[in-house]
Amino acid sequence: xxxxxxxxxxxxxxxxxxxxxxxxxxxxxxxxxxxxxxxxxxxxxxxxxxxxxxxxxxxxxxxxxxxxxxxxxxxxxxxxxxxxxxxxxxxxxxxxxxxxxxxxxxxxxxxxxxxxxxxxxxxxxxxxxxxxxxxxxxxxxxxxxxxxxxxxxxxxxxxxxxxxxxxxxxxxxxxxxxxxxxxxxxxxxxxxxxxxxxxxxxxxxxxxxxxxxxxxxxxxxxxxxxxxxxxxxxxxxxxxxxxxxxxxxxxxxxxxxxxxxxxxxxxxxxxxxxxxxxxxxxxxxxxxxxxxxxxxxxxxxxxxxxxxxxxxxxxxxxxxxxxxxxxxxxxxxxxxxxxxxxxxxxxxxxxxxxxxxxxxxxxxxxxxxxxxxxxxxxxxxxxxxxxxxxxxxxxxxxxxxxxxxxxxxxxxxxxxxxxxxxxxxxxxxxxxxxxxxxxxxxxxxxxxxxxxxxxxxxxxxxxxxxxxxxxxxxxxxxxxxxxxxxxxxxxxxxxxxxxxxxxxxxxxxxxxxxxxxxxxxxxxxxxxxxxxxxxxxxxxxxxxxxxxxxxxxxxxxxxxxxxxxxxxxxxxxxxxxxxxxxxxxxxxxxxxxxxxxxxxxxxxxxxxxxxxxxxxxxxxxxxxxxxxxxxxxxxxxxxxxxxxxxxxxxxxxxxxxxxxxxxxxxxxxxxxxxxxxxxxxxxxxxxxxxxxxxxxxxxxxxxxxxxxxxxxxxxxxxxxxxxxxxxxxxxxxxxxxxxxxxxxxxxxxxxxxxxxxxxxxxxxxxxxxxxxxxxxxxxxxxxxxxxxxxxxxxxxxxxxxxxxxxxxxxxxxxxxxxxxxxxxxxxxxxxxxxxxxxxxxxxxx
Amino acid sequence: xxxxxxxxxxxxxxxxxxxxxxxxxxxxxxxxxxxxxxxxxxxxxxxxxxxxxxxxxxxxxxxxxxxxxxxxxxxxxxxxxxxxxxxxxxxxxxxxxxxxxxxxxxxxxxxxxxxxxxxxxxxxxxxxxxxxxxxxxxxxxxxxxxxxxxxxxxxxxxxxxxxxxxxxxxxxxxxxxxxxxxxxxxxxxxxxxxxxxxxxxxxxxxxxxxxxxxxxxxxxxxx
Lengths: 845, 223
Fold this sequence. Notes:
Number of strands of chain A: 21
Low-confidence stretches of chain B: none
Shape of chain B: globular
Structural class of chain A: alpha+beta
Largest sheet of chain B: 6 strands, mixed
Strand content of chain B: 25-35%
Mean pLDDT of chain B: 87
Order of helices and strands of chain B: EEEHEEHEHHHEHEHEE
Number of helices of chain A: 32
Mean pLDDT of chain A: 85
Oligomer: heterodimer
């Protein structure tokens, strides 16, 4: 057949089956949209870190890194440049800061650099001549950031709160998208190195030196750098930050992977429902073409054009929908991670995301269109399409597909998932896959049990409604299972994710409360960037605070981050006399009381269980930390990760000062005099600190609330996922059931001809819909609760998150009720219209 | 049992003469009598059936079933009347796959009867129709002839006084067509059911007490 004729044939047929094709397009597009949005969401954070890192580092492949925010002496730069084979060496001083303008403030990564950074050619500074602003101590900001804080003019002042001080810098220029591309969304402020040193109080110090070795000299340079570092600095590949971030974002990435899988499944089921709607017509087309003498190859060409057009239109629509979804709903949120990693807020749409979503959509279209392929190659196409599934299948094949055989396979999968739950919680993703498989395999059995129950009930009453509903559903076969499966998967995902989300949030809030409970008030560097109290500052304010009448005691709190292997650990160092010193609810192994005594004594620490397991460490054993002043500690007990996904360490404040070789503090824990309200004391402390101070006072309650808000923000994607999936599923099920009802109008007319009134037919339609959705959602809810336990165990055992175990029974019931009600509400009017079909239609065939 | 008096159905057409689908048809069919109605496509057969079944309002004339003028029935009454007094057999089988023959047969009866009672009541009829061994088999495993017999059982399940059959042998081969028509005539006679069989099948005439022909909406006795 000529291509032009194939297209002509498609156009002619399209007019006759526009509704069915539109349904198929919507089904596949929904799948593509979900897959695309989840892919973009999950890849954006990692891409953002990678791009920002390479945007700064350019051609550099190695770096000499400080082990703490104090950095190391700038004099190292000359020694690095002297190493044979070093082509470019650029010093950088980085620090978290709060940028304030007339319109507001934003947390930024302050980057101090000199003109040698331009030589590395990183996208962030490639188009910015660094030399002119070196002399005037000005700042370069990305245009959206400058706009957000309200500084637009050259020379306009920007205030920076950093390391407990406030300083100003004039705006030199804004970076535009044409200059820095996708990095435009990065929250960075570039200042001359000397300005950054002055702002942070780190005079003549740098955080790292970026090194571009000459061709073939990398190994030699690496060895020389190691010798220079002398075990007090780190020598790393330039991608080290990405490695650390990947580890920290592992939990988030796993939830994204789970979402991608559930999205793909819901999308596939939507497409499958749509496919079942179009299959009979394609079967008839094949019969007609084959009878008219077309060869199988010609018929295949016709079908492939169908698939190409169906897939193409669906993918375009799906990508557009997915783009909107990823912008407005499923945006990636680094939350806590953005406090300790340089992460931009920009969205990255990689070619892989487009390829995966488009590939999935085209595959669904090809499967949909080519499913009646057997009829194409059959010698007798009519026989191949008549009575599908009845005459051609062997007895053995039918038995294999029987509900009880599938149910048995489902039970086996559920048992395997139980084994994972009990024995290998780290295999949560395979466990979830097994649960989904069990759910899908058990659905036909659940449906037939429900129909049997309905049948038994129907036998006890007079009235045809339940009988007709039962018979119709028994006859619906694959369609009924596909619709049920859509609801089941959606509720499963929603209940499991929502339940795990709630448990994790409760655990994080517990951990935050426990960590903040040793003080009434916290004084720490101002700005959201230091919410974890990890930014050190020079201890100058303590005496002033002690003299305040509302204050009973002021204790120095220390905390920071420590890169340990592939993990960036959170280090909490409360004052020795803090009570409680350790958050007892977070201790997993060992006695909290004994551990408290030992940590107070010094030389002991509490370590996250996951890190201890990774390094095969036990309570009482010793480990050497790669701190600026490397020290050995013994393990007093093991804890959760205290809400920081990479893991945490708790040691005493004085041990921290020794290991970091610095008296700097990161917060003051203030105890109030009896009867003093925190609000009153906060006011008093703020006045004592003065308007120029970069420090801020906050009640422990407010500090906890702020941390909790960030936790909720960090987990917002899970909440979004749990919302989006049921909405899509309701639409998918309503569309699929609506399509089935529309196709059934002639049969409804025949029932009407036999004396069944409109009300009976409407009630039958509603009962069938309620049964399909109810069985699917109820099964999904039960498995969802199971999934919640699996996710909780994985979060607690593998990543060591503080999780408060619960069973989201209310959530499951409300998901079940809401989805069933939503589908019935959507279908009530189409169902009524279908039931109003004129009976004479029955005699019109 | 069935009495049609000067039944007329005209369809208006814009700017032209109305289409006279049924044009003054009068007909009486007695209890137990079988009438075969022939006519080419477009002759008004389906329109006539629709009016008898109260699914189309006549332009003029009356339809009386069992002495009752059906025009006076409300929609609900008409629905109940169709359920209890009329039986329909069509060319397509309308059996639900995955459901047994007996469950398909009792579908109509279930509106007013418990399932157990309905099964008990229909079983002798299915036996009579030669489906005794097959009544618990799923509908898709039945032959075409068996499926049409299930439809006959469903149509007669509520004990109607009038049976309307629209091409009942249209999907059957000649031998099975004869079997079905034979059964239909026998059952109608046994139960005193008046039957109107609309067909193209010449065999229908062999099993009818009277043969009528409808052409351009006008009814005439066939020779």
